């Protein structure tokens, strides 16, 4: 049986510990190609590089793995992998992104570069998974993620994914108690409430740091926030068709400027 | 009756013709506050500024309008408007973004900074609209957009929007024939197929320009691509809950690693 071809990217950059762990798991499952940003790209959402140039250089950072570092965003990396690095070659059987240093549950999925790489894979029709560890530390403990990441990727390679979806996988931080299991969830109804820390630079000009508090409005038990809080791995299948189909019906009924 | 408070942002930057036209329409409808990027931010998707500082300066670019230029992304602008500029003040009745120089139909909604400003408004619970003109030219003709933008914004101020949605409005380019009407649509099933134009800089180092062709797979007549091609204004109500609810059911049935 042919080994699967696995494309790896991330948003923390090619030197981050998270991608190192992800590549190590993927080497156990198939042939690996890495195209990842050459610097941290957190919070880049689904940004792409428009009106500027891109650089791409081979990297020997992962032993025995074909790897490239790219000056662009996570979405750019997946596009370059498909349409330049692997052009006219075999295309990946799965796209995996991460492991992100920090949670991408709930509304954070919108701001997540990790997930934009995965969504970009899904747009191309390739099963795709974004992995995040709910621990922001650069020195986070990743040992407990190994089997989870392997098991989920194997399942996706075996069964595929529903058309037009990519998985948003969040893994609880390392705790003394083992992870309880894996749950398919919906995106929790929560948001960030920002605060702006207003300061002055040495020249007396004002600047800001954006900080924020995460506020969870969701009382359900079928969402990703609940899963992480209760020590389960959460998996939210995400779609890139943003149409609110119910709202299409409502507006068609209620509006009087249509024709 | 109290005049509505209207927050205006965009992704082409505060000096672009598109935002000038949008502010002019909004001045006819209410009190206007502008917080917009200080430079073009096209293709920024839902990026936010993480790990870097933000600048915000008052601008007198729009006559008689309170306006600020921000060093951040469109999403940052809306966050700063709510949590700094209008902190402890009356919050906007509607957030409008644009008018974008170029189409944001179909899959382009994911990459659109224009729409991320609108979505950010929707996350805050404010009715929000992203306006795009399907003409990429800086010198595009905007005269035919005036009444469309006004009519749609009035309708939203009057009737509100379904919870958790923002409108993605695309307006056909100026043609000799008048616009046929306004349609509520779904996001067309289409994608960009990228090509990378590989060049060498004066030092002999390689770089790339990303170019692409838009490919429409959608045969339906209820989508935004069809509407624009047939000279209708398209309105897609977009949601920020990315959960593919049907896929939640499928994975729960098919997977054997859950518990």
Biggest sheet features of chain A: 9 strands, mixed
The first-to-last residue Cα distance of chain A is: 56 Å
Fraction of helical residues of chain A: 10-25%
Query: What is the CATH C-level name of chain A?
Result: Alpha Beta
Structural class of chain A, by secondary structure, is alpha/beta
Classified in CATH, the superfamily of chain A is: Survival protein SurE-like phosphatase/nucleotidase
CATH architecture of chain A: 3-Layer(aba) Sandwich
Which fold name fills CATH's third level, the topology of chain A?
Answer: Stationary-phase Survival Protein Sure Homolog, Chain: A
The Cα radius of gyration of chain A reads 19 Å
The overall pLDDT average of chain A reads 95
Shape of chain A: globular
For this structure, the quaternary state is homodimer
Order of helices and strands of chain A: EHEEEHEHEHEEEEHEH
Care to describe what's here?
The structure is a homodimer of 259-residue chains. Chain A contains six helices and eleven strands. Chain A is globular and about 55 Å long. The first copy, chain A, has one domain: Stationary-phase Survival Protein Sure Homolog, Chain: A. With 259 residues, chain A is an alpha/beta fold. The interface between A and B is large, with 83 and 83 residues.
């Amino acid at each position: 049986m042919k080994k699967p071809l696995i494309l790896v990217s991330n948003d923390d950059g090619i030197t981050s510990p998270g991608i190192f762990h992800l590549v190590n798991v993927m080497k156990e499952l198939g042939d690996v190609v890495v195209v990842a940003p050459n610097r941290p790209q957190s919070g880049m959402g689904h940004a792409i590089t428009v009106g500027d140039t891109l650089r791409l250089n081979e990297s020997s950072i992962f032993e025995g793995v074909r790897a490239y570092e790219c000056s662009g965003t996570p979405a750019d990396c997946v596009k370059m992998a498909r349409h330049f690095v692997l052009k006219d070659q075999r295309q990946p059987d799965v796209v995996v992104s991460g492991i992100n240093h920090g949670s991408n549950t709930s509304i954070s999925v919108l701001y997540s570069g990790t997930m934009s790489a995965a969504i970009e894979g899904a747009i191309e029709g390739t099963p795709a998974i974004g992995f995040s560890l709910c621990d922001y530390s650069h020195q986070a403990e990743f040992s407990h993620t190994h089997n989870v990441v392997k098991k989920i990727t194997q399942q996706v390679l075996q069964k595929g994914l529903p058309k037009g979806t990519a998985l948003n996988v969040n893994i609880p931080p390392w705790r003394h108690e083992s992870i309880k299991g894996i749950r398919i969830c919906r995106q929790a109804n929560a948001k960030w409430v920002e605060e702006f820390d207003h300061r002055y630079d040495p020249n007396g000009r004002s600047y800001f740091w954006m900080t924020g508090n995460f506020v969870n409005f969701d009382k359900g038990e079928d969402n990703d926030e609940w899963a992480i809080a209760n020590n389960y791995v959460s998996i939210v299948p995400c779609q890139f068709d943003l149409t609110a189909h119910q709202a299409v019906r409502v507006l068609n009924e209620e509006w009087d400027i249509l024709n």
